[in-house]
Amino acid sequence: MSNIHSVEKIGGTSMAATATLFDNVLIGGRKDADLYNRIFVVSAYAGMTDLLLEHKKSGEPGVYARFVADDNIQGWRQAMERVRRAMQDRNAMFVRADRLAEANAFVDIRIDAVAACLDDLARLRSHGRFCVKEQLMTVRELLAGLGEAHSAHSTALLLRDRGVNAQFVDLTLWDQQDMRELDERISEVFAPIDLATTLPIVTGYAGCSEGMVRRYARGYSEMTFSRIAVLTGAREAIIHKEFHLSSADPRLVGKHKARKIGRTNYDVADQLANLGMEAIHPGAGRGLRQTDIPLRVRNTFDREDGGTLICSAYVSDTPRVEIVTGVRHAQALQFFEQDMVGVKGYDAAILEALTQHGAWIVSKASNANTITHYLSADAATVKRVIADLQARYPDAAVSAQPVAIVSVIGSDISRPGLMTDALQALAAAHVPIIAMQHQIRNVDVQFMVDVDHYDDAVGALHHVLVEDGTSEAEDRRAA
Question: Count of domains in the chain?
């Protein structure tokens, strides 16, 4: 395929703002040929995946969590009916009665089919002789795809009602046994599509042999988006979100003080992903970077703004901090062993335990007899890691404490005096520093502070390093 098309991903919150999405993104004033040469990869409507799996933040159980709990068959069935109602409530946006009936029938067919699968597994599990534990990940994959199938199908119908030749592209494999690799699946589906005359609306979930949820958790739609961009040779990859990629959280520093980044590079995007910020999944960014496809992050609610462009080669004209962000709730895991000096193997054992328990490493530090990992993980997970390490090294002192991590990031932050300004700003804001990390590559500096001082630290560093450290001319160039 020629590289004149874009591949664009729409997040769940943007999907839920349907009228704005059509006005600013899907249609956006375009007519005729200008509507095409775009591929849209859509997430489920906001909150739908929470109902299907579990709530991303609160942990409130959805269909999957209730099925795993096996409290009673009515538990997951009631949760499934709640999903059906939520999807059909969302379908109320259809004006034409025939389209509404078509959209609701699609929901009924998909939900009834998945519910039948769960019924079969529940009956097997009730016999006691059958172990269905190994099938639970398959259940999770099956449920995850329901949300994107619903949103993609409904969006394609709405576009066709507006005269757009939209095609619902279903990658979920909801009723197929052919579990090919993701790249092969994508290439096969897009081969017959003429992008000059067809607007594909693609499910963010893709059924494949790798298992999207197994490998990428809730970041699977960005991986689908990235692989489609790479395999179809896109001119540009675009993510539509409900906010600009800003110099700090506007809720912390104030909307009038937070600035759109405008331009940055994939190195900065990787740092943001490492901190858990939803710029782009690190695996998705890797494919785009390796094929030199620029990534643009746009605000769905700001139609005229070009957003932030992320490229491989970009470096700011002058050294500057582009963003101040971090992890509000982290854990500092400290491993002390007096006999560590000159002995190998400790680091590998710690990494093995962290991997086994799924603890995300934000950064690490070490000296002669201490290794400290700063983790984005809950206290219960860290407690299990400590127990494993203590059993393996009974003479070691293994402990953890809650910390907040505040990071200043930029494509080049080698400005003279930056560290002095940062330390003075934190001191003036009465923020005590627990630890600090400054990498040689001058892309980021991390400050570990008490959790209660996170907001103050972000505000103080943003004020000194961004608000006072960037001229208006630089702001205009960034935009």
Answer: 2
- Tell whether 333 and 471 lie within a shared domain: yes
Phi/psi for 358 (5° steps) reads: 70, 35
Structural domain of 60: 6-242
Q: What was the pLDDT predicted at 474?
A: 42
Classify residue 65: in a domain, yes or no: yes
Give SS3 for 141.
helix
Alpha carbons 60 and 322: distance in angstroms, whole number: 36
Co-location of 237 and 353 in the same domain: no
Taking a C-beta distance cutoff of 8 angstroms, is the pair 111, 146 a contact? Answer: yes
**Last residue of a domain, which of 219, 242, 265?**
242
**CA separation for the pair 14, 297 (Å, rounded):** 13
**Which residues, at least 6 apart from 416, have a Cβ–Cβ distance to it below 8 Å?**
none
Identify which of 314, 225, 302 has the alpha carbon closest to the alpha carbon of residue 264.
314
Q: Which of 372, 365, 363, 368 shows the shortest CA–CA distance to 333?
A: 372
Q: Are 196 and 102 in the same domain?
A: yes
> Are 414 and 442 a contacting pair, CB within 8 Å?
yes
Tens of pLDDT, residues 192-229: 999 999 999 999 999 887 788 888 888 889 899 999 99
Q: Parallel, antiparallel, or unpaired for β 370-376 and 323-336?
A: antiparallel
Distance from C-alpha of 311 to C-alpha of 236, rounded to nearest angstrom: 10
